[in-house]
């Protein structure tokens, strides 16, 4: 009992120190505890928002009206309408919101829907934190400040009930599966995200090359077939009924947005905003930016692929090394305690020489391959290489390609902030800006999205921030690749 109390006191002394607290806030590898605290705080905060802040009706009733038509047997997309106009989302949206229609008493129990969206938000946060924890890029205090203080994001998720958060949730599910090399599940959930809202296709250029680099052409075609099959199966009832109206309604890339709701182009006249040449110009800029960034993204993916291969080769050897070390420690413990040693547990001289040479090989391999030193074990610790950090080589290209799509969007409505909000800290900490300037950009972006209705100043400021962020990432990626090229 005395020893237990002493250890407990020592643990509390360690925790309640400035050094420990500082490390907890600044060290990206300590995000696990901080993320748990953020999620608990968000649970309480979102419940308070739902209970204290009035719900604002925007699209929920229209969603319910569109799904009511489907539940009544209408399969012709051109006849599925709500107060805000025709149904413009793919079939996955119809099924999900039809389910919400049924469990919320035909959409009347809005409070229940809000609590469901709290669950959606917390689940997405968990998936976001899992990526950030693996990448070890962003200090925990940044996520505390950014996530807990965003008025607009909390509004989008629990006060508006848009379909954007559901699409983004499915996207983050897929990203987590891709990080585990679970290709089928990753493709499945990616396509499910697209089936809720078409904006998830903004990730498609990066994902295509990620497939190609990791899997080769044949298996890439298999993954594309999975993605396409999901869309066909979900849309099958509508495709059979009226294929033209379904494809035109759910995947209408030529749809003209209402200038009234734009966040990013308030400074343009409505005539210019709706002009086809303006839309084509934005599309051209989008393509040009992809042409600039995709080659860099491919190099990141190639490094990711090579180092994952190294992991597959080295990890079993590390495990074997740790297993032999445990056997050796067990033998030494028995020697100290005077217990009889099983002859099979004794390490031979040849085995000991192998372990010594293998240790040297691991250290050499780690320096060349992953730039993460093999941790020198203490008497009780194990050898390890932190391969999770390779996440950086996958997630930045995915985030930046989506960000390019946001920058070049024909119009951004307020709910579209959810498309890239949770990736912004990662993108900003992937450039060489000072911490103060990063926070300034985050604050300005948040200010622009909180300005309602949008103004010329807020729209222009948002574009300036987007361009600055994009340029910062371009410089960082290009400099890193030049450095790697010189080393090679």
Overview of the molecule:
The radius of gyration is 26 Å and the shape is globular. It has one domain (31-313, 388-486). Strands 1-2 form a two-stranded antiparallel sheet. Mean pLDDT is 87; it is low at 340-347 and 361-375. Strand 1 and strand 2 form a beta hairpin. The termini are far apart. It is mainly α. Helix 10 packs across helix 11. The protein contains 19 helices and two strands.
TL;DR of this structure?
By secondary structure, this protein is an all-alpha fold. The protein is 71% helix and 1% strand. α5 (91-103) crosses α10 and α11 (204-241) runs antiparallel to α12.
What's the helix and strand layout?
Blueprint: H1 2-15, H2 18-26, H3 31-52, H4 60-71, E1 81-82, E2 85-86, H5 91-103, H6 110-135, H7 140-148, H8 151-160, H9 164-179, H10 183-196, H11 204-241, H12 243-250, H13 270-273, H14 276-337, H15 349-369, H16 391-407, H17 424-428, H18 435-450, H19 456-487
Antiparallel strand pairs: 1-2
């Amino acid at each position: 009992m005395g020893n237990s109390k002493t250890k407990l006191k020592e643990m509390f002394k360690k925790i309640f120190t400035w050094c420990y607290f500082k490390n907890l806030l600044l060290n990206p590898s300590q995000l696990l505890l901080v993320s748990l605290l953020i999620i608990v705080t968000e649970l309480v905060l979102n419940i308070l928002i739902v209970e204290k802040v009035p719900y604002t009706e925007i699209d929920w009733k229209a969603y319910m009206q569109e799904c009511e038509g489907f539940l009544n047997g209408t399969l012709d997309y051109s006849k599925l309408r709500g107060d805000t106009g025709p149904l413009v989302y793919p079939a996955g949206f119809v099924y999900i919101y039809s389910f919400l229609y049924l469990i919320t008493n035909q959409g009347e129990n809005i409070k229940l829907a809000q609590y469901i969206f709290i669950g959606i938000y917390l689940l997405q946060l968990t998936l976001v934190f899992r990526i950030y924890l693996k990448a070890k890029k962003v200090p925990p205090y940044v996520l505390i400040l950014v996530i807990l203080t965003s008025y607009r994001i909390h509004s989008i998720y629990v006060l508006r009930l848009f379909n954007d958060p559901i699409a983004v949730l499915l996207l983050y599910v897929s990203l987590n599966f891709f990080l585990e090399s679970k290709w089928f599940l990753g493709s499945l959930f990616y396509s499910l995200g697209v089936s809720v809202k078409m904006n998830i296709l903004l990730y498609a250029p990066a994902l295509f090359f990620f497939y190609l680099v990791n899997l080769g052409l044949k298996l890439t075609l298999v993954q594309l077939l999975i993605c396409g099959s999901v869309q066909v199966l979900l849309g099958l009832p509508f495709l059979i009924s009226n294929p033209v109206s379904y494809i035109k309604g759910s995947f209408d890339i030529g749809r003209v947005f209402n200038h009234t709701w734009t966040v990013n182009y308030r400074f343009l006249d409505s005539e210019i905003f709706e002009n086809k040449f303006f839309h084509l110009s934005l599309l051209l800029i989008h393509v040009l930016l992809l042409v600039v960034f995709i080659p860099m993204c491919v190099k990141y993916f190639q490094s990711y692929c090579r180092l994952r291969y190294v992991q597959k080769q080295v990890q079993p050897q590390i495990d074997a090394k740790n297993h032999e070390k445990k056997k050796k420690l067990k033998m030494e413990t028995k020697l100290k305690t005077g217990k009889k040693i099983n002859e099979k547990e004794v390490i031979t001289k040849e085995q000991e020489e192998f372990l010594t040479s293998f240790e040297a090989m691991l250290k050499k391999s780690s320096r060349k391959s992953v730039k993460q030193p093999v941790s020198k074990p203490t008497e009780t610790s194990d050898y390890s290489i932190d391969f999770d950090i390779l996440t950086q080589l996958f997630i930045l290209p995915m985030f930046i390609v989506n960000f390019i799509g946001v920058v070049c969007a024909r119009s951004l409505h307020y709910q579209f902030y959810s498309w890239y909000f949770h990736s912004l800290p990662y993108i900003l900490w992937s450039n060489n800006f000072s911490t103060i300037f990063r926070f300034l950009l985050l604050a300005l972006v948040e200010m622009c999205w909180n300005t309602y209705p949008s103004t010329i100043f807020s729209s222009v400021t948002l574009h300036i921030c987007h361009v600055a962020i994009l340029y910062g990432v371009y410089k960082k990626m290009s400099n890193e690749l030049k450095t790697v090229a010189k080393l090679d």
